[in-house]
Write a structure and sequence with these properties.
By secondary structure, this protein is α/β, with parallel strands linked by helices. The protein contains 13 helices and 8 strands. 37% of the residues lie in helices and 13% in strands. Helix 5 crosses helix 6.
Length: 310
């Protein structure tokens, strides 16, 4: 069911360069002197370059030469994230009236099984970034992401980060009855203009969320921006999560998810028993092939008669 990703020299070189930048930019992670913005991400690295300089056109040796070798490692920012508890008008997370009843259902138990298998797989391969996608709209990707995140968050001493990357139609905040306007804007965070501690919110001691409020029509371009990769690498270095879940757009609707595949370690594909066809899954497999491992296909809205009882 699980495939091992082939090494990608180009990706590994880029990731190595990004890691060196992260190590040198710990001053950009917390708001400086009460300000909740920081300078554009690559200002100190690209100074002196003419035109629109970015990591795509900058040789790794040049980037390395401009990094401050004496800078300290990023501090752990998990404890300084703003807290926002999920509302009571949801049934997934603790605090709602229906959460205890939902925990006793077959659906909740299925997500617990998925959680354990996923944790074992990512630990075995040293993976962190997992995308949750679907072939078409309406398959239940956000529902799956939220439930899987809730199940992961119940593991003691773990850390899970969930990012709402369905930028054209963000829905994670609504699913968890949370207010995305209480934090910074996703696009500004990915561009490097909003501090990590002012964007992500902590829903529980083990779960942090990056919510989206405003739809972005140029989502694919944002996902391919080198600043996005660097911001996410910086976030991982500062929060040290076990798993980062990305609630992704449908694979077959736009090129958003395809554009982000180089940043993922694996993909969970959500299918809908009432609308997903075999040809949809086959096309998704074709897109993912050679890019990122398909970790499994989750069947949502299956007929009750087709579910085995153990």
């Amino acid at each position: 069911m699980f495939k091992t990703r082939k090494p990608d020299p180009m990706k590994d070189t880029y990731a190595s360069s990004t890691a060196r930048i992260v190590a040198s930019r710990s001053d950009r992670m917390l708001p400086a002197q009460g300000s909740f913005t920081r300078p554009r991400r690559f200002a100190s690295v690209t100074d002196g370059f003419e035109g629109d300089a970015n990591l795509d056109h900058m040789p790794p040796e040049v980037i390395e030469s401009r990094v401050d070798e004496t800078s300290r490692s990023p501090r752990d920012l998990w404890g300084v994230l703003h807290e926002q508890a999920p509302g009571k008008d949801q049934h997934i997370m603790a605090g709602s009236a229906a959460e205890e009843e939902f925990r006793a259902t077959d659906v909740s138990r299925a997500f617990d099984i998925l959680r354990t298998r996923l944790r074992q797989t990512v630990k075995q391969h040293g993976w962190v970034n997992i995308g949750v996608a679907s072939p078409t709209t309406g398959c239940g990707t956000t529902f799956t992401t939220a439930n899987l995140a809730a199940s992961l968050s119940r593991v003691p001493s773990s850390r899970t980060v969930v990012m709402d990357f369905n930028m054209r139609n963000p829905g994670l905040a609504k699913m968890l009855d949370m207010d995305p306007r209480q934090s910074g804007d996703l696009r500004d965070f990915l561009a490097g203009d909003v501090a990590i501690s002012d964007y992500l919110v902590r829903a529980t001691d083990t779960l942090a969320l990056g919510l989206g409020a405003t739809p972005q029509t140029n989502a694919a371009e944002i996902m391919q921006d080198p600043a996005t990769a660097a911001s996410l690498a910086e976030m991982r270095a500062a929060l040290r999560p076990d798993i980062v879940l990305y609630d992704m757009p449908p694979l077959l609707s736009h090129d958003d998810t395809s554009a982000f595949l180089p940043q993922l370690d694996g993909v969970l594909l959500v299918s809908d028993g009432t609308q997903t066809m075999a040809k949809h899954i086959a096309e998704c497999e074709r897109i993912l092939d050679g890019q990122v491992p398909l970790l499994g296909v989750i069947l949502n809205r299956a007929r009750a008669s087709s579910i085995e009882r153990f």
